[in-house]
Amino acid sequence: QTGEHAAIQGGIDAxxxxxxxxxxxxxxxxxxxxxxxTGGIKDVADIEIDWYAGVKHDFGKVxxxxxxxxxxxxxxxxxxxxxxSVLLGLRExxxxxxxxxxxxxxxxxxxxxxxxxxxPEYTNRTGNVFTGEAGFEYTLPKMGRFSPAVSALLGxxxxxxxxxxxxxxxxxxxxxxxxxxxxxxxxxKFSLDLRxxxxxxxxxxxxxxxxxxxxxxxxxxxxxxxxxxxxxxxxATW
Length: 238
Hints:
The chain is mostly beta strands and 238 residues long. 3% of the residues lie in helices and 53% in strands.
């Protein structure tokens, strides 16, 4: 969500027994749009801050995690889109999502995680949205100071609103996404993740912007990136 530019991200977590809470932030670039009231050009959003809380419990081979996430975009320009009635008010980027996850520890070095998300009003007021994910992580033997692991994830999202079809699914009410990669931990606090991401969202045309190249962002001014991407992430944890 940075228009192919780098992102700087960070967060803080706090735990108390089974309970946890925290926040996470990142820069992003949602482009700029014309304000229908003033005629001026405004940035849609430059920052995302997510607030979350929940409870975890370990049942031995299975760890359950139930939580809530509030996605916020400070100082965002929640603009109207063509066809929106003035009576409907401005669109809203902020939204709430509920989460229920189970991590299955099949072996000391192999685990499978399944997660379900539900938002009663997804970003940009695109209605009810359901998301399901399934992934695995396999920890490889240590190589000196390095601790490698391979992992992959498959996700499915579905919405029930015509705005969802136009803004996210490119005329479809659902899509698949996936990633696969390797994470190498080193010096205890650091890790380097090399990962490929992709979706099956149609890139050939879009009713919203009236042109091709929906997924590589050309139709939306570089805002929405949903075609294949290789991402390298360097992370430090204290």
